[in-house]
Design brief:
By secondary structure, the chain is an alpha+beta fold. It folds into three domains: 221 residues, Rossmann fold (3-Layer(aba) Sandwich); 78 residues, Beta Barrel (Elongation Factor Tu (Ef-tu), domain 3); 119 residues, Elongation Factor Tu (Ef-tu), domain 3. Helices cover 20% and strands 31% of the residues. The protein is built from nine helices and 22 strands. It starts with 11 loop residues before the first helix and ends in a 20-residue tail after the last helix.
Protein backbone atom coordinates (compact mmCIF):
# COMPACT_ATOMS: atom_id res chain seq x y z
CA UNK A 1 0.00 0.00 0.00
CA UNK A 2 1.29 3.45 -0.92
CA UNK A 3 1.24 5.98 1.87
CA UNK A 4 0.61 9.54 0.71
CA UNK A 5 2.09 12.18 2.98
CA UNK A 6 1.35 15.87 3.00
CA UNK A 7 3.96 18.32 1.68
CA UNK A 8 4.44 19.53 5.24
CA UNK A 9 5.73 16.07 6.19
CA UNK A 10 8.59 16.48 3.74
CA UNK A 11 9.45 19.95 5.03
CA UNK A 12 8.55 21.57 1.70
CA UNK A 13 7.22 24.73 3.31
CA UNK A 14 10.40 25.17 5.32
CA UNK A 15 12.46 24.53 2.19
CA UNK A 16 10.50 27.04 0.09
CA UNK A 17 10.60 29.66 2.83
CA UNK A 18 14.38 29.29 3.11
CA UNK A 19 14.81 29.88 -0.62
CA UNK A 20 12.35 32.77 -0.75
CA UNK A 21 14.27 34.62 1.96
CA UNK A 22 17.63 34.29 0.21
CA UNK A 23 19.27 37.18 -1.57
CA UNK A 24 19.33 36.89 -5.35
CA UNK A 25 22.50 37.86 -7.20
CA UNK A 26 22.30 38.47 -10.93
CA UNK A 27 25.61 38.21 -12.71
CA UNK A 28 26.84 38.04 -16.28
CA UNK A 29 29.57 35.86 -17.76
CA UNK A 30 31.24 37.65 -20.65
CA UNK A 31 34.49 37.85 -22.55
CA UNK A 32 35.96 36.98 -25.92
CA UNK A 33 35.16 34.03 -28.16
CA UNK A 34 36.09 30.60 -26.75
CA UNK A 35 37.25 31.93 -23.40
CA UNK A 36 35.10 29.26 -21.72
CA UNK A 37 32.02 31.16 -20.53
CA UNK A 38 29.51 28.36 -21.15
CA UNK A 39 31.87 25.77 -19.68
CA UNK A 40 32.31 27.89 -16.55
CA UNK A 41 28.54 28.16 -16.02
CA UNK A 42 28.14 24.45 -16.71
CA UNK A 43 30.81 23.78 -14.07
CA UNK A 44 28.97 25.98 -11.55
CA UNK A 45 25.74 24.06 -12.18
CA UNK A 46 27.46 20.68 -12.04
CA UNK A 47 29.58 21.23 -8.94
CA UNK A 48 26.75 22.84 -6.97
CA UNK A 49 24.68 19.73 -7.78
CA UNK A 50 21.99 21.57 -9.74
CA UNK A 51 21.78 18.91 -12.47
CA UNK A 52 19.30 16.00 -12.37
CA UNK A 53 20.22 12.46 -13.36
CA UNK A 54 18.28 12.63 -16.61
CA UNK A 55 20.10 15.83 -17.51
CA UNK A 56 23.44 14.13 -16.91
CA UNK A 57 22.40 11.27 -19.20
CA UNK A 58 21.31 13.72 -21.90
CA UNK A 59 24.53 15.69 -21.45
CA UNK A 60 26.63 12.56 -21.95
CA UNK A 61 24.70 11.74 -25.12
CA UNK A 62 24.95 15.28 -26.47
CA UNK A 63 28.66 15.44 -25.66
CA UNK A 64 29.31 12.48 -27.94
CA UNK A 65 27.43 14.23 -30.75
CA UNK A 66 28.26 17.92 -30.30
CA UNK A 67 30.99 18.05 -27.65
CA UNK A 68 34.39 19.67 -28.08
CA UNK A 69 36.15 17.81 -25.25
CA UNK A 70 36.85 14.49 -26.98
CA UNK A 71 35.50 11.61 -24.92
CA UNK A 72 34.86 13.81 -21.88
CA UNK A 73 31.57 15.46 -20.91
CA UNK A 74 31.23 18.94 -22.42
CA UNK A 75 29.66 21.09 -19.70
CA UNK A 76 29.15 23.99 -22.11
CA UNK A 77 26.23 22.08 -23.65
CA UNK A 78 24.25 22.67 -20.45
CA UNK A 79 24.00 26.30 -21.51
CA UNK A 80 24.40 26.32 -25.30
CA UNK A 81 20.95 25.04 -26.19
CA UNK A 82 20.47 26.35 -29.73
CA UNK A 83 21.23 23.93 -32.57
CA UNK A 84 23.39 26.56 -34.26
CA UNK A 85 25.36 27.07 -31.06
CA UNK A 86 26.09 23.38 -30.73
CA UNK A 87 27.04 22.98 -34.36
CA UNK A 88 29.43 25.94 -34.27
CA UNK A 89 30.62 25.55 -30.71
CA UNK A 90 29.81 29.18 -29.87
CA UNK A 91 27.25 31.14 -27.89
CA UNK A 92 24.84 33.22 -29.98
CA UNK A 93 21.90 34.07 -27.77
CA UNK A 94 21.82 35.05 -24.11
CA UNK A 95 21.14 32.02 -21.90
CA UNK A 96 19.88 32.52 -18.35
CA UNK A 97 20.44 29.83 -15.74
CA UNK A 98 19.41 29.59 -12.10
CA UNK A 99 21.26 27.88 -9.28
CA UNK A 100 21.38 28.17 -5.53
CA UNK A 101 23.65 27.55 -2.56
CA UNK A 102 23.04 27.67 1.17
CA UNK A 103 24.02 31.33 1.15
CA UNK A 104 22.42 32.86 -1.92
CA UNK A 105 20.41 32.27 -5.09
CA UNK A 106 21.89 33.17 -8.46
CA UNK A 107 20.67 34.12 -11.92
CA UNK A 108 23.51 33.98 -14.42
CA UNK A 109 23.49 35.24 -18.01
CA UNK A 110 25.82 33.48 -20.45
CA UNK A 111 26.45 35.98 -23.24
CA UNK A 112 28.02 35.76 -26.70
CA UNK A 113 31.67 36.56 -27.27
CA UNK A 114 31.49 37.36 -30.98
CA UNK A 115 31.52 41.07 -31.81
CA UNK A 116 28.47 40.73 -34.06
CA UNK A 117 26.43 39.62 -31.05
CA UNK A 118 27.54 42.48 -28.79
CA UNK A 119 23.93 43.74 -28.66
CA UNK A 120 22.91 40.41 -27.10
CA UNK A 121 25.65 40.78 -24.52
CA UNK A 122 24.25 44.19 -23.54
CA UNK A 123 20.90 42.50 -22.84
CA UNK A 124 22.44 40.28 -20.19
CA UNK A 125 24.49 43.09 -18.66
CA UNK A 126 21.50 45.42 -18.34
CA UNK A 127 20.09 43.69 -15.26
CA UNK A 128 23.29 42.28 -13.73
CA UNK A 129 24.80 43.26 -10.37
CA UNK A 130 28.22 41.71 -11.04
CA UNK A 131 30.22 40.87 -14.17
CA UNK A 132 32.44 37.80 -14.47
CA UNK A 133 34.83 38.67 -17.31
CA UNK A 134 36.66 35.62 -18.61
CA UNK A 135 40.11 35.73 -20.19
CA UNK A 136 41.83 32.80 -21.90
CA UNK A 137 45.22 32.63 -20.15
CA UNK A 138 46.87 31.64 -23.43
CA UNK A 139 45.42 34.57 -25.40
CA UNK A 140 45.47 37.33 -22.80
CA UNK A 141 43.36 40.45 -23.16
CA UNK A 142 41.60 40.82 -26.52
CA UNK A 143 39.64 43.55 -28.25
CA UNK A 144 36.39 41.91 -27.18
CA UNK A 145 37.57 41.61 -23.57
CA UNK A 146 38.12 45.37 -23.51
CA UNK A 147 34.81 46.00 -25.30
CA UNK A 148 32.89 43.94 -22.75
CA UNK A 149 34.65 45.62 -19.84
CA UNK A 150 33.68 48.99 -21.26
CA UNK A 151 30.09 47.88 -21.85
CA UNK A 152 29.54 46.59 -18.33
CA UNK A 153 30.99 49.77 -16.86
CA UNK A 154 28.72 51.93 -19.03
CA UNK A 155 25.72 49.83 -17.99
CA UNK A 156 26.37 50.57 -14.33
CA UNK A 157 28.04 47.36 -13.12
CA UNK A 158 30.57 48.31 -10.45
CA UNK A 159 32.00 44.93 -9.39
CA UNK A 160 33.98 42.62 -11.62
CA UNK A 161 35.45 39.16 -11.17
CA UNK A 162 38.33 38.76 -13.63
CA UNK A 163 38.33 35.00 -14.23
CA UNK A 164 41.62 34.01 -15.89
CA UNK A 165 40.56 30.68 -17.37
CA UNK A 166 42.48 27.72 -18.83
CA UNK A 167 45.34 28.24 -16.41
CA UNK A 168 45.98 24.49 -16.57
CA UNK A 169 47.09 24.95 -20.19
CA UNK A 170 49.81 27.40 -19.08
CA UNK A 171 51.10 25.20 -16.28
CA UNK A 172 49.43 27.54 -13.77
CA UNK A 173 52.01 30.21 -14.54
CA UNK A 174 51.92 33.02 -12.01
CA UNK A 175 53.78 35.32 -14.41
CA UNK A 176 51.03 34.82 -17.03
CA UNK A 177 48.33 35.51 -14.47
CA UNK A 178 50.03 38.63 -13.10
CA UNK A 179 50.62 40.02 -16.59
CA UNK A 180 46.92 39.64 -17.53
CA UNK A 181 45.70 41.14 -14.27
CA UNK A 182 48.08 44.09 -14.54
CA UNK A 183 46.99 44.80 -18.13
CA UNK A 184 43.30 44.65 -17.23
CA UNK A 185 43.68 46.91 -14.22
CA UNK A 186 45.52 49.47 -16.33
CA UNK A 187 42.75 49.45 -18.95
CA UNK A 188 39.95 49.49 -16.37
CA UNK A 189 41.43 52.30 -14.24
CA UNK A 190 39.26 55.04 -15.82
CA UNK A 191 36.10 52.89 -15.98
CA UNK A 192 35.12 53.47 -12.36
CA UNK A 193 34.83 49.90 -11.08
CA UNK A 194 34.46 49.70 -7.31
CA UNK A 195 36.15 46.29 -7.18
CA UNK A 196 38.10 43.96 -9.46
CA UNK A 197 38.69 40.48 -8.04
CA UNK A 198 41.16 38.40 -10.10
CA UNK A 199 40.87 34.60 -9.87
CA UNK A 200 43.01 32.00 -11.71
CA UNK A 201 40.89 28.98 -12.62
CA UNK A 202 40.20 26.07 -14.94
CA UNK A 203 36.51 25.76 -15.85
CA UNK A 204 37.12 22.45 -17.58
CA UNK A 205 38.75 20.80 -14.54
CA UNK A 206 36.86 22.78 -11.89
CA UNK A 207 39.88 24.29 -10.13
CA UNK A 208 38.93 27.48 -8.22
CA UNK A 209 35.40 27.51 -9.62
CA UNK A 210 33.32 26.00 -6.83
CA UNK A 211 36.09 24.29 -4.88
CA UNK A 212 39.62 25.61 -4.23
CA UNK A 213 42.30 24.40 -6.62
CA UNK A 214 45.55 22.84 -5.46
CA UNK A 215 47.68 23.37 -8.57
CA UNK A 216 48.46 27.06 -7.92
CA UNK A 217 50.08 27.18 -4.50
CA UNK A 218 50.89 30.87 -5.09
CA UNK A 219 47.20 31.85 -5.16
CA UNK A 220 45.88 32.54 -1.66
CA UNK A 221 42.37 33.69 -2.53
CA UNK A 222 39.11 31.74 -2.63
CA UNK A 223 37.29 30.19 -5.60
CA UNK A 224 34.88 32.11 -7.82
CA UNK A 225 31.75 30.84 -6.06
CA UNK A 226 32.99 32.13 -2.70
CA UNK A 227 33.33 35.61 -4.19
CA UNK A 228 29.83 35.43 -5.70
CA UNK A 229 28.40 34.41 -2.33
CA UNK A 230 30.05 37.32 -0.52
CA UNK A 231 29.90 40.24 -2.97
CA UNK A 232 27.31 42.89 -2.03
CA UNK A 233 24.15 42.56 -4.13
CA UNK A 234 23.08 46.18 -4.08
CA UNK A 235 25.24 49.12 -4.99
CA UNK A 236 26.81 50.81 -2.00
CA UNK A 237 27.29 54.06 -3.89
CA UNK A 238 23.71 55.27 -3.75
CA UNK A 239 20.20 54.59 -2.53
CA UNK A 240 17.74 55.29 -5.32
CA UNK A 241 14.68 57.41 -4.55
CA UNK A 242 11.18 55.94 -4.65
CA UNK A 243 9.80 55.41 -8.16
CA UNK A 244 6.57 53.61 -9.04
CA UNK A 245 5.67 53.68 -12.73
CA UNK A 246 1.92 53.34 -13.14
CA UNK A 247 1.06 50.36 -15.32
CA UNK A 248 -2.67 50.27 -14.69
CA UNK A 249 -5.34 52.39 -12.99
CA UNK A 250 -7.25 49.94 -10.80
CA UNK A 251 -10.87 51.09 -10.60
CA UNK A 252 -13.20 48.14 -9.91
CA UNK A 253 -15.96 50.41 -8.61
CA UNK A 254 -16.71 54.02 -7.76
CA UNK A 255 -15.40 53.58 -4.20
CA UNK A 256 -11.88 52.44 -5.10
CA UNK A 257 -9.19 54.03 -7.27
CA UNK A 258 -5.63 52.80 -7.08
CA UNK A 259 -2.50 52.91 -9.20
CA UNK A 260 -0.87 49.55 -9.86
CA UNK A 261 2.72 48.85 -10.83
CA UNK A 262 6.08 47.38 -9.92
CA UNK A 263 8.20 49.51 -7.61
CA UNK A 264 11.34 50.31 -9.60
CA UNK A 265 13.38 51.70 -6.71
CA UNK A 266 13.19 52.91 -3.13
CA UNK A 267 10.42 52.29 -0.64
CA UNK A 268 7.25 53.99 0.55
CA UNK A 269 4.79 53.82 3.44
CA UNK A 270 1.31 55.20 4.15
CA UNK A 271 1.56 58.85 5.09
CA UNK A 272 4.51 59.60 2.80
CA UNK A 273 4.27 62.64 0.52
CA UNK A 274 4.60 61.89 -3.18
CA UNK A 275 4.50 63.74 -6.49
CA UNK A 276 2.60 62.46 -9.51
CA UNK A 277 3.91 62.95 -13.00
CA UNK A 278 3.16 64.32 -15.53
CA UNK A 279 0.51 66.35 -13.67
CA UNK A 280 3.03 67.55 -11.08
CA UNK A 281 0.40 67.27 -8.34
CA UNK A 282 1.35 66.17 -4.84
CA UNK A 283 -0.54 63.88 -2.52
CA UNK A 284 -0.13 61.46 0.36
CA UNK A 285 -0.08 57.67 0.35
CA UNK A 286 -3.32 56.49 1.97
CA UNK A 287 -2.99 52.71 1.44
CA UNK A 288 -0.62 50.21 -0.10
CA UNK A 289 -2.87 47.43 -1.32
CA UNK A 290 -1.88 43.90 -2.44
CA UNK A 291 -3.73 40.64 -3.03
CA UNK A 292 -2.52 39.48 0.38
CA UNK A 293 -3.71 42.57 2.20
CA UNK A 294 -2.40 46.04 3.02
CA UNK A 295 1.30 46.68 3.61
CA UNK A 296 2.91 48.97 6.15
CA UNK A 297 5.82 49.53 3.76
CA UNK A 298 6.55 48.50 0.19
CA UNK A 299 9.98 48.32 -1.41
CA UNK A 300 11.75 47.85 -4.72
CA UNK A 301 10.67 44.75 -6.63
CA UNK A 302 7.18 44.52 -5.11
CA UNK A 303 4.03 44.79 -7.24
CA UNK A 304 1.48 46.90 -5.41
CA UNK A 305 -1.56 49.14 -5.82
CA UNK A 306 -1.18 52.54 -4.23
CA UNK A 307 -4.22 54.49 -3.08
CA UNK A 308 -3.73 58.24 -2.71
CA UNK A 309 -5.44 60.58 -0.30
CA UNK A 310 -6.41 63.00 -3.09
CA UNK A 311 -7.98 62.74 -6.54
CA UNK A 312 -5.10 63.38 -8.93
CA UNK A 313 -4.51 63.09 -12.64
CA UNK A 314 -2.59 59.86 -13.27
CA UNK A 315 -2.73 57.12 -15.87
CA UNK A 316 -0.54 54.45 -17.46
CA UNK A 317 2.83 56.08 -18.12
CA UNK A 318 2.73 58.30 -15.04
CA UNK A 319 5.24 57.89 -12.21
CA UNK A 320 4.60 58.18 -8.50
CA UNK A 321 7.81 59.51 -6.93
CA UNK A 322 8.92 60.72 -3.56
CA UNK A 323 8.10 64.41 -3.22
CA UNK A 324 11.56 65.47 -2.04
CA UNK A 325 13.33 63.82 -5.02
CA UNK A 326 11.24 64.40 -8.17
CA UNK A 327 12.41 63.46 -11.64
CA UNK A 328 13.45 65.89 -14.37
CA UNK A 329 11.07 66.80 -17.17
CA UNK A 330 12.40 67.41 -20.69
CA UNK A 331 11.69 66.96 -24.38
CA UNK A 332 15.40 66.85 -25.28
CA UNK A 333 17.65 64.06 -24.07
CA UNK A 334 21.42 63.70 -24.12
CA UNK A 335 21.96 59.94 -24.21
CA UNK A 336 24.68 57.38 -24.68
CA UNK A 337 23.44 55.03 -27.40
CA UNK A 338 24.34 51.40 -28.09
CA UNK A 339 23.36 51.17 -31.77
CA UNK A 340 22.20 47.69 -32.83
CA UNK A 341 20.97 47.89 -36.43
CA UNK A 342 22.95 47.14 -39.57
CA UNK A 343 21.80 50.43 -41.09
CA UNK A 344 23.78 53.46 -39.94
CA UNK A 345 22.33 56.08 -37.62
CA UNK A 346 22.62 59.65 -38.92
CA UNK A 347 21.27 63.03 -37.75
CA UNK A 348 17.65 63.55 -38.71
CA UNK A 349 16.72 59.89 -38.28
CA UNK A 350 13.20 59.41 -36.92
CA UNK A 351 12.44 56.53 -34.54
CA UNK A 352 10.15 55.59 -31.71
CA UNK A 353 11.52 56.03 -28.23
CA UNK A 354 10.17 53.81 -25.48
CA UNK A 355 10.88 55.31 -22.08
CA UNK A 356 9.25 52.95 -19.65
CA UNK A 357 5.58 52.70 -20.49
CA UNK A 358 5.71 55.87 -22.58
CA UNK A 359 6.24 55.58 -26.34
CA UNK A 360 6.98 58.79 -28.22
CA UNK A 361 8.47 60.01 -31.48
CA UNK A 362 12.18 60.80 -31.39
CA UNK A 363 14.38 62.57 -33.92
CA UNK A 364 18.18 62.43 -33.78
CA UNK A 365 19.20 66.07 -33.40
CA UNK A 366 22.94 65.41 -33.44
CA UNK A 367 25.60 62.74 -33.01
CA UNK A 368 28.37 64.30 -30.97
CA UNK A 369 30.92 61.50 -30.68
CA UNK A 370 31.71 57.80 -31.00
CA UNK A 371 33.41 55.91 -28.18
CA UNK A 372 36.39 53.72 -29.05
CA UNK A 373 35.57 50.27 -27.62
CA UNK A 374 39.22 49.51 -26.84
CA UNK A 375 40.23 52.74 -25.13
CA UNK A 376 36.91 54.15 -23.92
CA UNK A 377 37.84 57.54 -25.41
CA UNK A 378 35.34 59.59 -27.39
CA UNK A 379 36.11 61.03 -30.83
CA UNK A 380 33.96 63.34 -32.99
CA UNK A 381 31.54 61.44 -35.26
CA UNK A 382 28.60 62.14 -37.52
CA UNK A 383 27.15 58.60 -37.72
CA UNK A 384 27.00 55.32 -35.81
CA UNK A 385 27.29 51.80 -37.26
CA UNK A 386 26.18 48.46 -35.88
CA UNK A 387 27.49 47.81 -32.33
CA UNK A 388 28.85 51.37 -32.09
CA UNK A 389 28.55 53.36 -28.87
CA UNK A 390 28.04 57.09 -29.18
CA UNK A 391 26.85 60.31 -27.56
CA UNK A 392 23.60 61.47 -29.15
CA UNK A 393 21.02 64.22 -28.62
CA UNK A 394 17.35 63.30 -29.17
CA UNK A 395 14.37 65.61 -29.69
CA UNK A 396 11.07 64.14 -28.49
CA UNK A 397 7.55 65.20 -29.47
CA UNK A 398 6.40 65.19 -25.85
CA UNK A 399 7.90 65.80 -22.46
CA UNK A 400 9.09 62.82 -20.46
CA UNK A 401 10.51 62.42 -16.99
CA UNK A 402 13.87 60.80 -16.40
CA UNK A 403 16.75 60.40 -13.98
CA UNK A 404 20.39 60.23 -15.03
CA UNK A 405 21.22 56.57 -15.62
CA UNK A 406 24.04 56.86 -13.07
CA UNK A 407 21.39 57.57 -10.42
CA UNK A 408 18.70 55.13 -11.49
CA UNK A 409 18.89 52.38 -14.12
CA UNK A 410 15.14 52.12 -14.54
CA UNK A 411 14.19 55.76 -14.95
CA UNK A 412 17.40 56.63 -16.78
CA UNK A 413 17.14 54.21 -19.69
CA UNK A 414 15.25 53.94 -22.96
CA UNK A 415 15.14 51.98 -26.18
CA UNK A 416 14.80 53.21 -29.75
CA UNK A 417 12.57 51.26 -32.13
CA UNK A 418 12.73 51.21 -35.93
CA UNK A 419 9.45 52.52 -37.32
CA UNK A 420 9.27 50.21 -40.33
CA UNK A 421 10.44 46.89 -38.88
CA UNK A 422 9.60 47.52 -35.19
CA UNK A 423 13.01 46.01 -34.39
CA UNK A 424 14.76 47.44 -31.36
CA UNK A 425 17.39 49.77 -32.79
CA UNK A 426 19.31 50.94 -29.74
CA UNK A 427 19.64 51.05 -26.00
CA UNK A 428 19.96 54.54 -24.56
CA UNK A 429 21.34 55.71 -21.23
CA UNK A 430 20.39 59.19 -20.09
CA UNK A 431 23.41 61.35 -19.32
CA UNK A 432 23.54 63.69 -16.33
CA UNK A 433 23.49 66.73 -18.63
CA UNK A 434 19.76 66.80 -19.44
CA UNK A 435 18.23 69.68 -21.37
CA UNK A 436 15.24 70.79 -19.30
CA UNK A 437 12.18 72.04 -21.16
CA UNK A 438 10.74 75.52 -20.54
CA UNK A 439 7.85 73.89 -18.70
CA UNK A 440 10.28 72.10 -16.42
CA UNK A 441 12.24 75.31 -15.78
CA UNK A 442 9.04 77.15 -14.92
CA UNK A 443 8.03 74.40 -12.50
CA UNK A 444 11.43 74.59 -10.85
CA UNK A 445 11.19 78.36 -10.43
CA UNK A 446 7.77 77.99 -8.80
CA UNK A 447 9.09 75.31 -6.49
CA UNK A 448 6.73 72.77 -8.04
CA UNK A 449 8.13 69.26 -8.53
CA UNK A 450 8.94 68.66 -12.16
CA UNK A 451 6.51 66.27 -13.79
CA UNK A 452 7.70 62.85 -14.84
CA UNK A 453 6.94 60.46 -17.67
CA UNK A 454 7.75 56.74 -17.69
CA UNK A 455 10.49 54.25 -16.96
CA UNK A 456 12.11 51.16 -18.41
CA UNK A 457 11.39 48.63 -15.65
CA UNK A 458 13.75 46.00 -16.96
CA UNK A 459 16.22 46.02 -19.83
CA UNK A 460 16.13 42.28 -20.17
CA UNK A 461 14.37 42.50 -23.51
CA UNK A 462 16.37 45.56 -24.63
CA UNK A 463 17.41 44.02 -27.92
CA UNK A 464 14.48 41.66 -28.27
CA UNK A 465 13.18 41.25 -31.81
CA UNK A 466 16.65 41.48 -33.36
Amino acid sequence: MTIHQSPEAFGYEKFLHAHQSKEVLRFIACGSVDDGKSTLIGRLLHDTKQIFDDQVTALQRDSRKHGTQGQEVDLALLVDGLQAEREQGITIDVAYRFFSTETRSFIVADTPGHEQYTRNMATGASTADVAVILVDARQGLTRQTRRHALLVSLLGIKRVALAVNKMDLTGWSQDTFDRIVSGFQEFAAPLGFAEIRAIPLSAKNGDNVVLPGTAAAWYQGGPLLSYLEEVPVKSEERAAAFRLPVQWVNRPNSDFRGFSGLIASGSVAPGDRVVIAPSGKTSTIARIFTADGDLKRASEGQSVTIVLADEVDASRGSIIATADAPLTVTDTLDVRLFWALETELTPGASLWAKIGTVTTNAVVKSIRSRIDPETGRAAPADKLGVNDIGEVTLNLDREVAVDPYADNRDTGSLILIDRETTDTAALGLVKSSIAVSPKGEEAARKGTPRPAGGFLARLRWVFGGI
